[in-house]
Design brief:
The protein is α/β, with parallel strands linked by helices and 228 residues long. It has one domain: Metallo-beta-lactamase, Chain A. 21% of the residues lie in helices and 28% in strands. The chain is built from 6 helices and 14 strands. The chain has a 7-stranded mixed sheet with strand order 6-7-8-9-10-11-12. A hairpin with a 2-residue loop joins strand 6 and strand 7. Helix 4 packs parallel to helix 5. The N terminus is likely disordered.
Length: 228
């Protein structure tokens, strides 16, 4: 799976599943293959897709959804690049609602979701880091956030970044400042085509999609932990 921020559920006899996804990876083929492995047979609907930015690693995979899955809502930080806007517009044209979170929070699936907006230093575009919080655990998805951007996030949002699990940017680049601020129990590292993996920080359990395959996590008294 290109991104472990995925939680399927619902009735396996239905063509519809309660599913949310954060970003999509850079390959439509890999995204469709991953969804096919994780979703019940004949599922044809995704309730929500959250896009954290407009870079290739975040949105290109979404281009493969048309004709395979309908999408209920697409949440974006606004200000995507032209490629990202085109893909979101195509999903909207196919019937999806588009919500620009713009730093706000919303409720879905019994959890509180929040898009922590920032302007990317490298591109000057609006992006966001995503937090998902419910009584069983807390997730922080960094999307395509660079390490300098991560340090800016820490300065602005501080303890709002606390998380049991942090999904790093593709390749695993993560700032020591972010680690000290979020204080995660473990890290999940998506591996994207053409993005080199970086050395892992010491002292954190790490799962990588390249070696561990599809990643699934569940919450409980000890927070979010990988599901065997």
């Amino acid at each position: 799976m290109a991104d472990p921020g995925l939680a399927p559920g619902g009735d396996p006899r239905s063509d519809r599943a309660s599913l949310y996804r954060t970003d999509a990876g850079s390959s439509p083929t890999l995204l469709l293959a991953a969804l096919g492995r994780l979703l019940p047979p004949a599922t044809a609907h995704l309730d929500m897709v959250v896009v954290t930015g407009g870079g290739q690693a975040a949105v290109n995979g979404l281009g493969g959804l048309a004709g395979h899955y309908s999408v209920g809502t697409v949440v974006t930080p606004g200000g995507l690049n032209p490629g990202g806007n085109n893909i979101v517009a195509a999903l909207e044209g196919a019937g999806a609602n588009v919500l620009e979170a713009d730093g706000g929070s919303w409720s879905f699936g019994g959890a509180t979701w929040r898009c922590l907006g920032f302007i990317a230093l490298a591109t000057g575009r609006q992006m966001c880091a995503l937090t998902i919080d419910d009584p069983t655990g807390r997730l922080l998805v960094l999307g395509d956030t660079g390490t300098a951007d991560q340090e800016d996030l820490c300065a602005v949002y501080g303890s709002a970044l606390d998380a049991d699990l942090v999904v790093t940017p593709p390749g695993g680049a993560i700032s020591p400042v972010l680690l000290a601020t979020a204080r995660p129990l473990e890290l999940a590292v998506p591996i994207a085509q053409g993005v080199p993996a970086v050395p892992a920080p010491q002292g954190y359990p790490i799962d990588r999609t390249s070696t561990d395959g599809d990643l699934s996590y569940s919450g409980g008294p000890a927070g979010l932990q990988e599901t065997p």
